[in-house]
Amino acid sequence: MTAFGATELIVMGIILGGPVILLLAVLAVLKLKKGKKDDPGMYIKQKL
Question: Residue 23 has what pLDDT?
């Protein structure tokens, strides 16, 4: 995943005004930094 994609997720969370979504986006990015190849979009959908 590109940094642009991660930024899009965070911006989307801010625009929606959903701190929970923003938090999930941050957690997804942190998971990616730990070496996971999961798509953050799928990660968020699983949590909703």
Answer: 80
Looking at the structure of the chain, the number of domains it has is 1
By CB neighbour count within 10 A (0-12 exposed, 13-18 middle, 19+ buried), where does 26 fall? Answer: middle
Q: Tell me the per-residue pLDDT of 3-44, one tens digit each, with 9 for 90 and over.
A: 667 788 777 767 777 777 778 778 888 877 775 555 666 666
Do the beta carbons of residue 19 and residue 42 sit within 8 Å?
Answer: no
What is the crossing angle of helices 19-33 and 3-16, to 10°? 160
φ, ψ for residue 34, nearest 5 deg: -85, 0
Domain assignment of residue 31, given as a range: 3-47
Q: How far apart are CA 48 and CA 41, in angstroms?
A: 11
